[in-house]
């Protein structure tokens, strides 16, 4: 089945004696280990992944701690595909959703920007005064956002950064968001393009802030009792989770219910008042939050939300991964495969079509080499260590052209509509564990199905009773109408006969008088 959600996680050793960590893919429903990629020990926010598409296989990047090395993996091979020597050690990396650019931050506050397919170093600049902690691209890839220990969040336009004529232009900085007072710990970008995007930032100053990225306006400040280390934002942008350093995860609602002047319940956004609008979370939970924070019991090192917004996935510094039911906060399942290591990265996406060990099942090919021909991996070239104007002028990029739709195609990675509907129905079906038990969401789905069946039976019964009542009503109506019509006809006949008789008697009397 192609529509299968997988969990992508990266681990790092807690001490040098443990050896190297791994990158692993687990099935979200069964927690089965699908594939592992070894010889990597990337620190938090030093791992990036590009998903496989219908025409190209994806890849993974992992910056190694204490070394100026970047390991490159693809899903078709469980070994390192390429080792890239970097100009210096990186503290964080990020790639855009199209897999075109890779950005890396340094401990001195610098940022590098490479083109992945050619390896060209388009720009390197001093972006901050201190260490760069986190880098994020917006969904459309037009903006790069950086957060640093100097407490600032800077916004960079990618088109200006790759412009040959503006390499040393100080105006490359589009905007600086400087309302935090201590180092930035995490950044989350909302959905949408740059002009309609909002971002969440967290800091060691015990706050998380919601910004309008296009104008740089601070919308709301959320105050927490502890330092917030990690953020996870729902795709609908209605809820976000904030994990503090003590292992407590706060669920914050961005919308709340209230009564309007007419007494009706309406939904309204929380906050939005600007710099002076502060929402305190934790000590006095929001009224819409009936449940308290999730107590993990140990330090949280990574956090993500599943694709279907069913689970909050939490990785700990001891290597345990917890799955919490999204609405009820109940612990549904746990993965202990990586116990003893630290979870440094978590994300979920659809199972890659070219995943090692599962290629023949998805692509229906005879061998791995045939699968590579059917779904070639996106090219990754060694990154340049210094800017080279000649390379930028030549700018040779290896790329794959889209197939001509007018020509007959036999791409095993393409869906037809019927197959898509069948796989989607299987993808959203509740999952039963091997021991026959089901998660809380599966129980809710089963109860909903039982309720639907019960309601359908009641509707069928009511329809049957309605048919019987209608039949009785029709019979009564017909009998009443026939009775009335029969009575009126008899009365009319009697009146006519009486009138005829009286006329004859009058005529007789007149004839006698005459």
TrEMBL record:
- Enumerate the SUPFAM superfamilies for this protein: WD40 repeat-like
UniProt KW Nucleus keyword: yes
Q: Does the keyword Coiled coil apply?
A: yes
Q: Where are the WD repeats?
A: 125-156, 199-221
One GO term (biological process): DNA-templated DNA replication
Where is the protein situated, by its record's location annotation?
Answer: Nucleus
Q: Pfam families from the xrefs?
A: WD40
Going by the UniProt record, its keywords in alphabetical order are: Coiled coil, Nucleus, Repeat, rRNA processing, WD repeat
Q: Where is region (Disordered) located?
A: 485-514
What sections of the sequence does the record tag as coiled-coil? Answer: 445-472
Tell me where it mainly resides.
Answer: nucleus
Enumerate the InterPro entries for this protein: WD40/YVTN_repeat-like_dom_sf (IPR015943), WD40_repeat_dom_sf (IPR036322), WD40_rpt (IPR001680), WDR18/Ipi3/RID3 (IPR045227)
Per the record, its GO cellular-component terms are: nuclear pre-replicative complex; rixosome complex
User: Which proteins does it associate with, and in what oligomeric form?
Assistant: Component of the RIX1 complex, composed of IPI1, RIX1/IPI2 and IPI3 in a 1:2:2 stoichiometry. The complex interacts (via RIX1) with MDN1 (via its hexameric AAA ATPase ring) and the pre-60S ribosome particles.
Role summary: Component of the RIX1 complex required for processing of ITS2 sequences from 35S pre-rRNA.
Q: Which family does it belong to?
A: Belongs to the WD repeat IPI3/WDR18 family.
Sorted alphabetically, which PANTHER family does this protein's record hold? WD REPEAT-CONTAINING PROTEIN 18 (PTHR18763:SF0), WD-REPEAT PROTEIN 18 (PTHR18763)
Protein name listed in UniProt:
Pre-rRNA-processing protein IPI3
């Amino acid at each position: 089945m192609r529509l299968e959600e997988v969990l992508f996680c990266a681990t790092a050793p807690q001490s040098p004696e443990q050896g190297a960590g791994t990158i692993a893919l687990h099935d979200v429903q069964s927690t089965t280990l699908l594939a592992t990629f070894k010889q990597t020990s990337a620190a938090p926010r030093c791992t990036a992944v590009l998903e496989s598409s219908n025409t190209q296989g994806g890849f993974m990047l992992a910056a190694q701690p204490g070394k100026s090395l970047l390991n490159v993996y693809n899903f078709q091979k469980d070994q390192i595909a390429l080792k890239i020597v970097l100009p210096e050690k990186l503290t964080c990396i990020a790639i855009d959703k199209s897999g075109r650019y890779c950005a890396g931050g340094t401990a001195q506050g610098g940022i590098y920007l490479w083109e992945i397919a050619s390896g060209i170093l388009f720009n390197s600049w001093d972006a901050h005064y201190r260490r760069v902690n986190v880098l994020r691209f917006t969904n459309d890839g037009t903006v790069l956002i950086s957060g640093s220990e100097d407490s600032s969040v800077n916004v960079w336009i990618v088109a200006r950064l790759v412009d040959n004529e503006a390499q040393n232009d100080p105006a490359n900085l589009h905007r600086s968001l400087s309302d935090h007072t201590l180092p930035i710990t995490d950044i989350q970008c909302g959905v949408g393009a740059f002009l309609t995007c909002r971002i969440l930032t967290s800091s060691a100053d015990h706050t998380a802030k919601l910004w309008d990225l296009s104008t740089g306006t601070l919308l709301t400040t959320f105050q927490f009792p502890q330092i917030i280390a990690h953020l996870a934002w729902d795709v609908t942008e209605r809820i976000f989770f904030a994990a503090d350093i003590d292992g407590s995860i706060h669920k914050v609602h961005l919308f709340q219910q209230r009564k309007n002047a007419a007494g009706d319940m309406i939904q309204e956004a929380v906050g939005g008042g600007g710099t002076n609008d502060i929402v305190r979370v934790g000590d006095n939970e929001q009224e819409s939050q009936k449940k308290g924070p999730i107590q993990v019991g140990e330090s949280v090192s990574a956090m993500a939300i599943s694709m279907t917004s069913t689970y909050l996935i939490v990785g700990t510094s001891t290597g345990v991964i917890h799955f919490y039911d999204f609405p009820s906060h109940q612990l549904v399942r746990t993965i202990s495969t990586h116990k003893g290591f630290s979870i440094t990265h978590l994300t979920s996406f659809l199972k890659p079509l070219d995943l090692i060990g599962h290629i023949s099942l998805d692509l229906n090919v005879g061998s791995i080499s045939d699968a590579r021909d059917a779904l070639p991996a996106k090219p990754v070239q060694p990154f340049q260590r210094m800017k080279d104007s000649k390379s930028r002028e030549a700018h040779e990029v290896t790329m794959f052209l889209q197939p001509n739709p007018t020509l007959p195609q036999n791409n095993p990675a393409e869906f037809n509509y019927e197959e898509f509907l069948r796989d989607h129905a299987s993808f959203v079906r509740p999952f039963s564990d091997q021991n026959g038990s089901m998660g809380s969401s599966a129980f809710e789905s089963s109860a909903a199905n039982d309720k639907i069946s019960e309601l359908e039976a009641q509707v069928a019964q009511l329809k049957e009773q309605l048919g019987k009542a209608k039949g009785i009503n029709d019979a009564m109506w017909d009998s009443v109408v026939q009775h009335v019509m029969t009575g009126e006809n008899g009365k009319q006949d009697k009146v006519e006969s009486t009138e005829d008789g009286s006329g004859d008697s009058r005529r007789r009397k007149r004839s006698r008088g005459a």
